Each structure stands twice: as structure tokens, then as C-alpha cells.
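From the shared-data thread, chain only:
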Amino acid sequence: MTKRSRARQLSPEEKRLWSHVARHVKPMAGKRLPPEPEPESKPATGPAPQVTALNPTLPPLPPQPKPALPPLAPVERKTLQALRRGRKDVDSVIDLHGMRQEEAHFALLRFLHQAQSSGYGLVLVITGKGGAAAGHGLFEERGVLRRMVPHWLRLPDLRPLVIGFEEASPQHGGSGALYVRLRRRRGAG
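Structure, as C-alpha cells:
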């Protein structure tokens, strides 16, 4: 003889909580949310009892994520041509080559914040090309900044500053330098 289990009924608070969750959840593709539980009918006699001491409130919704910044954009072709032909110049330059990685990262952050505060739109970041390794040591690596600076410029903490970047033209350092386009500072006209 098998015993048939009876489904437990949800309490009014659980129903209210489920209703709140169901309104704020988007089902996965091809799936549907289970139906909301039926609200309990209230007796017609007298007002509903008030529970004050044990009336838990719903936890606040988690903070909404900030709107995503648009993807990085390359420097416009017209701007690159003007730079190449000498009709346009960069607003400021930082030379990172010769610095250790941590030192260069902090210098780059400070430089980009200052450049944006100054209202600059296009700056040149010199990383160096990273020549041949001096020794043949297994852990000697050259061109670290050349590889790391583009990575740093893509990080979320720099996205409010950086619109995009592009390898510099030969007269500005070629593959050992980057043109970096900066966003206008909010509140700046």
C-alpha cells in the first residue's frame, strides 16, 4: 500500500514572495514559469488581522547594473590620415617604455585621468617595441608593455575614459605606440 503525499499549501507570505519573484524573472528560452498560486479568499466577516511583529518585508532588489559602455571603437580613418600627414597632432604623450609593468600601469592610469580632466581627446601612449632579449634566460621577456597596454585599455575600469585605440603611425612610434581616444568628461560641455 503506497501512501499518496499531499502537496503542502503555500502560506500567504510565500505566495506574495512567489508573485514578486515571478514578476521579476525572465524564463529561459523555451521554458515557462509555473503558474502563480491562487490568492486565498478572505473571509467576509470583519477586518483582516494585522500582524506587526512578524511581518517580514521583502529584501531590496539587488542594484541594477550600470548601462554597459559601447564596444571600443577604432580611431577614425580621417583622424589617422591627418595624424600621418602631420595636419593633426596628439594632445599629449606618455612614454612608458623602460618602466616595470606595475609602474607603467599606474603611470598610464594617472596620465589618462589627467588627460581626460584636461579635455584632451587624443593622446599617444608609447610602449616601446620590446627588442630582442638581452640574455637567453627562460624567464626574460621583452615587449611586455607592448602586449599589456592594449589589455589594460580594454579593462572595465578604463572604459569610462577610453573610447578606443589604434596602433600609431610610423612617425609616432608605429607598433611601439598607440593612439588612444578619450571620452569627454561628464559634465564638460
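Residues 101-117 form the longest helix (17 residues).
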